[in-house]
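Quick check before the chapter quiz. The format below is the same one you will see on the exam, so make sure you can read both the input and the output lines.
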Amino acid sequence: MRLFAIPVLLAGLALAATADDTVVRPGPWAFRPGQTYTYEAKTEFAYSNGSYEVDTGCGKYKGEKTTHQVETLQLKATVTAVGDDGAARITFEVVSVAVEANDGEGGVKADWDSHAKGLPQEGYLRWASIAGHKFDAIIAPDGVIRELANPDWPTSATKSADRPSMETKASKNHRDPTSKKAWLELIFGTAPQAKLAVTKMHLPIPEMMEIKPDGAGQCAGDMCSKVKLGTQDKPESAADFTPPELRKRGESWWSPKAGSVVRVELSGAEEAKLYKAGLLGTVKWTIELKERGQVNLTPGKPDTATPK
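Here is the expected output.
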């Protein structure tokens, strides 16, 4: 199949079903070649790992040692081609990435931003590797990911800063970067449907997520369609059963004016396995549409990639 980076119809993208035979429903995404969307994608992770006691001189104060981690990506999406069924080939670029965390013991903080010139702490090589990274995906009009080229983040960064041991520890003992697939599912898969829909999300453990219309309201200056998100309640005997303590809940807002999801919030519990097996923490994903635009695409060489 020959795909060109110009506004042409791509018969090869006109698939009636995804690779796993999931029927593709008509959806709200009306892709056009040259559309650009820039999203801020943030993951916040926190867990408690013990308590502390401080003598203030006027009495003793007790509290919990709380460890937190925040990653923030600026993810730009450019629609490079659209098929006759509305599916789009989209090029994504991680414009910037920032990450911060504390060590959960003495409260030592480590942060790094790709806009800065300094080297990252050792544990943040995972994020330094993805700054500037580009990848392609084919997205159906209902938000289903038909194809995701190179689903894993690169791990090419090797040079780290020589920092104090506790700061290095703060950069290492937390969750890995949220996956490409999870971000795309949260952006494209949470758009409103005509009625209750169910989709699989990888957060990172696969779970079935209900997408339920929930009226309308103001968001980002627009009148938006609102959607409730929640892990599907299934019997414990089901193969894809998600324990109640790990289920996620959230909302998304769709702007007809922007032609995009403008905000997504989803939160729940997740195991802090890099720190201690079995320890549960809280995780929250937030996505905001920061900018949208239109670019003129220039003719390019044929792309012989074939959707799987």
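If your answer matched, good. The longest strand covers residues 60-82.
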